[in-house]
Specification:
Elements (H helix, E strand, L loop, with lengths): L2 H7 L9 H10 L4 H13 L4 H19 L3 E4 L10 E5 L3 E10 L3 H12 L4 E4 L4 H14 L1 H7 L3 E7 L7 H8 L5 H4 L5 E7 L6 E6 L2 E6 L12 E8 L13 E4 L14
Helix pairs in contact: 2-4, 6-8
């Protein structure tokens, strides 16, 4: 992966610039062999496409997180001809489908940021209010498997992760989901939303926000010392009006140094 891929994910303590790749094996260890092969194939095909590789990596993180919560993950299950990103199952009967979305700034702005980053230049520009785009992104995902969830009487959860240049704040998520015009009112088949975010990260670029102005400043390689508790946070927003709630989901975290699975998962049934 190129520099702006590993930079956006962060440098792990004591590891090299391929920290994204070094995080993949422990995450894959929570999957059955079939799903491991599916991810390996995707990463190979996406080696030159930063956007797609990062999306796939975050799909994998969602699977590893839920596996560590006691669920058995099934990647891209075929259900009535549809393939949500995940099916999570626990204790035989408790299960839900999930889909992962990465949130970006508008492509016109993102192209300028990428060009400045690749050239080692400082970029400063106006970042429009992202609230409407965030609402639209969640709205699209909420409706994607609405019918499937209703037909199967199955809970449906969306995972959303804000890109480095489109960091999502908790209050923005809440505004989109709750209240009179919140998505939870319109989509009772949406059981909840997991907001994925990095707790602490070091990158090859520093983003400085002043009001609606965002400045991207290239940096030297960050120091190797990094908070051992740093990693990915998963904040869960449950839909109080959900037709099919997932009763045991809660907030949690996946440390950068999360361990591999000690038991090899069985093959998918």
């Amino acid at each position: 992966m190129s520099n702006n891929t590993w930079a956006a994910f962060g440098i792990l303590p004591g590891r090299d610039e391929d920290s994204v790749q070094s995080s993949i094996p422990p995450a894959l260890s929570y999957l059955c062999e079939r799903d491991q092969r599916a991810f390996a194939k995707k990463f190979s095909e996406q080696s030159g496409n930063n956007d797609q590789a990062m999306h796939t990596f975050r799909e994998l993180l969602a699977g590893a997180f839920m596996a560590r919560q006691g669920y058995t993950p099934f990647y891209e299950p075929s259900i009535d001809g549809l393939t949500p990103d995940w099916l999570f199952r626990r204790a035989g009967q408790e299960e839900f489908i999930a889909d992962v979305v990465n949130f970006h700034v508008a492509r016109t702005i993102e192209s300028k940021l990428e060009r400045a980053f690749d050239e080692g230049q400082t970029w400063c520009g106006e970042i429009p209010d992202q609230s409407q785009r965030l609402h639209s992104s969640l709205w699209e995902k909420a409706g994607k498997y609405k019918n499937l969830a209703a037909q199967k009487s199955m809970p449906y959860v969306v995972f959303i992760f804000g890109w480095l240049n489109a960091i999502i704040e908790p209050d923005q998520v809440e505004t989109c989901l709750v209240g009179a015009e919140g998505l939870f009112n319109d989509y009772t088949t949406l059981s909840g939303v997991y907001h994925m975010r990095e707790r602490t990260y070091k990158t090859k670029a520093e983003v400085i926000c002043i009001g609606t102005q965002m400045i991207l400043v290239p940096k030297e390689r960050p120091p190797s010392l990094l908070d051992a508790e740093a990693g990915y946070c998963f904040d869960y927003y449950a839909n109080p009006k959900a037709s099919y709630p997932v009763r045991w989901l809660s907030n949690g975290a996946l440390a950068y140094r999360f361990p591999a699975c000690s038991d090899q998962p069985t093959q998918r049934e």
